[in-house]
Design brief:
Elements (H helix, E strand, L loop, with lengths): L30 H16 L6 H8 L4 H25 E4 L3 E7 L2 E6 L2 E4 L5 E7 L4 E10 L5 E11 L3 H6 L4 H18 L3 H5 L3 H19 L4 E11 L5 H70 L1 H17 L4 E5 L7 E5 H4 L4 H4 L3 H17 L5
Antiparallel strand pairs: 1-4, 2-3, 2-5, 6-7, 7-8, 9-10
């Protein structure tokens, strides 16, 4: 039998789709009618009347429809709850988040980023962002070590580095951080003088607050890591701010004058040290020159003395000639007083006697001997009387 052939009992009056052939054309059933039929069957099944509304009404009497209706409502509620549970059983964690899974209120496990599953109504997930840099700002009046009051504003930046500790150990970790930050700031400001807080001590103050605050947080076990502490502003209270500003300006002027004086000292002192060092080196060089000259003269005198001891006459004449050479070396004319008390003077033209080279090249030993002989000759020719 072909697939589209109806069975024997339905071959004459009913097609494979369950429709009777009452003179109508062959074809598929109406889609809207099928949907309506199935909807009616589902409603009957949910209401507990599987055989139809009239038959169920006859069997159940006046109250027969209530148990079936209640059963259908309970079944619908269960289906809705199951759907909602399955929908809530899956969750997603971002790359910045960590999931703290609690089962029956107790810690069960840690979940990493991605698509995760939890048991509905049993597991509870706390999502903690471990990379977001959180910030807390505070401003208040503080008492310093020298019993002055300053207005300090501070900003704390921190991370929830330990997701489990941040979610479970402390009921309100951020509130605990705020209280600890206030306490740490007051402790550090109370150990410093007002001048340090207002001027150059802000960096040290911020570092001290950060270390102390981190120690407090570690004792609490809240899973927070302090990234930075910034002292944004530190100033005197409003009623006395003008007076303190004048004091600060005076101190700045004092520091400026000190810096100028230090710069001048840095310029003058090296120059003075250089000049002093130069004079010391010149004095040392002059001393070395004098000592060397003296030692050379002493060595020359000792050498001359040894020669004189060996040949006194020759050495004496040699010294005499060297002395005359030194005297007459640059002279062109010589005047001689022949005898003491006499008015006669003797004139010696050395330039002519030496051939005109007395002043240019100096007198040699031969020239000196010749001059000496000429001098003796002239003295003999013109004797001077008493």
């Amino acid at each position: 039998m072909a697939w589209n052939e109806p069975p024997d009992n339905q071959r004459n009056d009913q097609d494979p789709w369950g429709r009777r052939q009452n003179g109508k054309q062959d074809g598929p059933p109406d889609l809207d009618q099928l949907i309506g039929d199935w909807t009616k069957k589902i409603n009957q099944w949910l209401s507990g009347n599987k055989r139809g509304g009239n038959q169920g009404g006859n069997q159940g009497g006046s109250g027969g429809g209530q148990p079936g209706s209640a059963k259908g409502l309970w079944l619908a509620a269960v289906v809705v709850l199951l759907g909602a549970g399955l929908y809530n059983a899956f969750y997603t964690l971002d790359e910045q988040e960590r999931g703290v899974v609690l089962r029956f209120g107790n810690f069960y496990k840690m979940e990493m980023p991605g698509l995760r599953f939890k048991l509905p109504l049993i597991d509870q997930v706390e999502k903690v962002n471990v990379t977001n840099l959180r910030s807390y700002a505070y401003q208040g009046l503080m008492l310093t070590e020298d019993d002055n009051i300053v207005d300090v504003s501070m900003t704390v930046q921190y991370l929830a580095s330990d997701a489990r500790a941040f979610a479970l150990n402390v009921r309100s970790p951020e509130r605990s951080l705020e209280d600890a930050a206030n306490a740490a700031l007051r402790h550090e400001v109370g150990s410093l003088a007002m001048d340090q807080v207002l001027t150059a001590g802000r960096t040290a103050l911020a570092d001290g607050v950060r270390q102390r605050l981190q120690s407090y947080i570690d004792e609490y076990g809240s899973g927070i890591t302090i990234s930075a502490v910034n002292i944004r502003e530190a100033q005197a209270p409003n009623p006395v701010r003008d007076a303190f500003d004048d004091v600060i300006r005076a101190r700045e002027d004092e520091q400026r004058v000190i810096n100028q004086a230090q710069a001048y000292a840095n310029q003058v002192i090296p120059e003075a040290r250089g000049a002093a060092q130069r004079q010391l080196e010149e004095a040392a060089a002059y001393r070395a020159q004098l000592v060397s000259t003296a030692e050379g003269d002493a060595a020359r005198f000792l050498s001359l003395y040894n020669e004189y001891a060996q040949a006194p006459e020759v050495t004496r004449e040699r010294l005499y000639l060297e002395t005359l050479s030194a005297i007459y070396g640059d002279a062109n004319k010589v005047l001689l007083d022949v005898r003491e008390g006499s008015n006669n003077m003797m004139y010696l033209p050395l330039d002519r006697i030496a051939g005109g080279n007395a002043g240019a090249a100096g007198l040699t030993d031969t020239d000196l001997r010749r001059i000496t002989d000429e001098l003796e000759r002239r003295i003999r020719q013109n004797p001077t009387r008493n």
